[in-house]
Amino acid sequence: MAEEQPVEKRLSIGKIYLKDFSFESPQAPSIFQNSDWQPKTDLNLRSNHTPAGDNHHEIVLTITVEAKADDKTIFLVELQQAGLFEISGYEGDEMGAIVGSFCPNMLFPYARESIASLIQKAGFPEFVLQPINFDALYMQSQQQKAAAETQVSDADKH
């Protein structure tokens, strides 16, 4: 009986880069004349995984921040912070957790700094994105996926 050789697991960051970045401030300059506005901020984030060949994987963390006051957009920021990661020896749930949680968590500080810097350079008060628990978000998405699969399978039985 031949012994199986253990698969060497490897995870490394090859490159972190800004893939896309846009900023809009449709109410400028009049918004700066109003000193008592209290904006409502909406945050949307998602990540995508694309194999890039030879154990390389591109992970893109997309963050959209929209600030509104009186139903008017004060500013809108969309950023795609990307990374090229070398990932080998992982499969299934481990691979899912790496591309769905670990890699976005590595990209987030770069995205947070870029967004905060741009908003401040645009003349707005300091904006700080709070830390994100990507492990919890990944687990939530897995639970939602499992629930959806259960609903589909139950619907097929009827």
Description:
- The protein has 158 residues and is an alpha+beta fold.
- It has one domain: Bacterial Protein-export protein SecB.
- Helices cover 34% and strands 37% of the residues.
- It has two helices and four strands.
- It has helices spanning 92-121, 134-157; strands at 10-24, 40-51, 56-69, 72-88.
- A four-stranded antiparallel beta sheet has the order 1-4-3-2.
- Strand 3 and strand 4 form a beta hairpin.
- Helix 1 packs across helix 2 (134-157).
- The longest helix has 30 residues, at 92-121.
- The protein is globular, with a radius of gyration of 20 Å.
Strand arrangement across the biggest beta sheet: 1-4-3-2
Unreliable sequence segments:
none
Tally of alpha and pi helices: 2
The end-to-end distance, rounded to whole angstroms, is 47 Å
CATH architecture: Roll
How would you spell out the order of helices and strands? Answer: EEEEHH
Rg calc: 20 Å
* Biggest sheet record: 4 strands, antiparallel
Strand content is 35-45%
Secondary structure: number of strands: 4
Estimated helix fraction:
25-40%
Mean pLDDT: 91
Q: What is CATH's topology name?
A: Bacterial Protein-export protein SecB
